[in-house]
Amino acid sequence: MKTIYVATTNKGKIKEFEQILSGLSIKIESLQDHVANMEDVEETGETFEENAVLKAETYATRHNLPVIADDSGLEINALNGEPGVYSARYAGEEKSDDANIEKVLAKLDEKKADDRSAAFVCVMAYAEPGEEALTTKGKCHGTITNERQGSEGFGYDPIFKPTGYSQTLSELGPSVKNEISHRRMALNDMVNVLTEKVSG
Ligand SMILES: O=c1nc[nH]c2c1ncn2[C@H]1C[C@H](O)[C@@H](COP(=O)(O)OP(=O)(O)OP(=O)(O)O)O1
Ligand SMILES: [Mg+2]
After folding, report:
1. CA–CA separation, 77 vs 74, rounded Å?
2. What confidence tens digit (pLDDT) does each residue in 92-139 have?
């Protein structure tokens, strides 16, 4: 199968794409490594689907390559689904993981929320130049801890304990995370969709 270019500015995501897809028939390469200057796509959508499609279609057409893009984030029930599509920019445009985590913990403290349930959501979008994108979606349920635990991964991993585990995604590390994550689930479905597309 031809190479698909992973269009993301997030190094943590690229690493997970590589680990999850290694050993599969789908060959990927980072778009950022392949093109001279990959400019960010402004995420103007109101849903993960809209933003994933926007990123995939814009990058595919701009660079004339088949691309896969991921729009993802954390939905916290006690915060009515926040930070949601604003997960990356929750504490400001500089997209700081540390500041975002602080803001989530402060908001949950402020609310004295007993319910700390949450879910990570990931929408994958695959697009070829000038074509409409195909999408798949994955979810990972869990709870928000009271403080940061662990150092691996990225984003909100240090405060997210997946259902059925007593440690955060940061403590569990990539071998466990990449078996159960929202990104893994969305990629599993995307591999099936792309395999059918090629054979059908
Ligand atoms: O597995 C995850 N573990 C921890 N945190 C995560 C995960 N997955 C998404 N997240 C958080 C990070 C970021 O705050 C936001 C994604 O925002 P999102 O716009 O999709 O990605 P991004 O701006 O970092 O890179 P890009 O848009 O170039 O792919 O959700
Ligand atoms: Mg983004």
Report:
1. 10
2. 999 999 999 999 999 999 999 899 999 999 999 999 999 999 999 999
DSSP state of 92: -
Distance 26 CA to ligand 1 centre (A): 22
pTM greater than the 0.90 cutoff: yes
Which atom of ligand 1 is found nearest the CA of 69? 29
The amino acid sitting at 118 is: A
* Residue whose token pair is 């893994």: 184
Structure tokens that stand for 148 in this block: 């940061």
Q: Chain-centre distance of CA 84, in angstroms?
A: 11
184 is in an annotated binding site: no
What's the rounded Cα separation, in Å, for the pair 187 and 200? Answer: 19
Q: Is 9 one of the annotated binding-site residues?
A: yes
Q: Which residues are catalytic?
A: 71
> Which domains, from first to last, does the chain contain?
4-199 (3.90.950.10)
